[in-house]
Amino acid sequence: MSFSQTKKIYIIAGEPSGDLHGRKLIEEIKQSKPNVQFYGLGGPQMKSVGVQLDYDMTQISAVGFTDVLKNYLKFRKIFYMALDRVKEIKPDLIILIDFPGFNLRFAKKIRLQFPMIYYITPQLWAWGKRRIYILKKYIKKLLVIFPFEKDFYAEHQIPASYVGHPLVDEIKGGPSKSEIIVIRQKLSLSPDIPTIGILPGSREKEVKRILPILLKSAQKMTQKESNIQFILSKTSSIQNNVYDSILKDVQGKINIHAYTDQHHNIIKASNILAVCSGTATFETALHDKPFFLVYKTSLLTYLIGRALVKIPYLGIVNILSKKPVNPELIQGNLTAEKATRIMSELLYSSEKREAQIKEFFKIREKLKRGNAAQLAANQIIKFLDS
Asked: What is the edge-to-edge ordering of all strands in the sheet holding 141-144?
């Protein structure tokens, strides 16, 4: 029987960004092999392109070690359910996307029963060199999104293909002035006053820890300069009442607009932004928008993470640039006073904004590779055909 009639792929993505990248990867594979059957763990994006989902992983809000521990029984149930499902389906290939806490354990448990490819590999270069043996022993192929990752794995005798970062293909640079005006009108914003975007994260725990501090900062900014507006990025994976309970403390005290699942437009409409650590920081940089990084987790998670992480920065822009392009306010350093100071410096210093934008351009040029999802799909098809 032919490849297109019989091949089955089990794919695991555990977060909204992985779900999105999984969807795009599947779309590209289907361009060449439309009859491949996809099963797996993911979210609505992957489901929309025909994946038979065993569980919607994007509905689990877990950030850091303590949150994972609280959801341990749920993760354990899903983990063993997926193992049983894989043994039942007997896929020709398993594709793992990011989500290292789950996927590395899954790879180790499956061992060599089925071939595995890892797309968007864990940041072992930052925190987990001791777990490299899992990739080396059990993963057939690594598809990496940063050029230095290929070199990193080569040092450990692990073959990896650099396919480029999928976001670089999508985001071509900053919006024009006319586009900003149109977007601000669409979002019911004043077209010509200073605008600060607030992206407090995509999980409930992140929002509860980070948003109140940034709103206090917004209030302090407003006390200094009344002619200023804020835009809050909400996500549909978090119930509105979570945001409402936090926003009520500043109701009538600041000029703030909130929109759900509009973070790209919010980034484009803003002069500067406060952005929770994660994919959104890289998206903001690719849109040429100056920002500072914020992050706050439980004390236990922070202490464990601090012991594991061996690099000086949290943000990918700073890591790629090897210098502090974007200020980082992490854990105890994330206070309303410090956030207000950085907001003010960025908003009113064209020199600081232009310095960031210059570095963003360098990064974008360095990472240009082509269609990352297509290049990754080509590698996967080639692997299966062989």
From this structure: 52-56, 37-42, 8-13, 93-97, 116-119, 141-144, 160-162
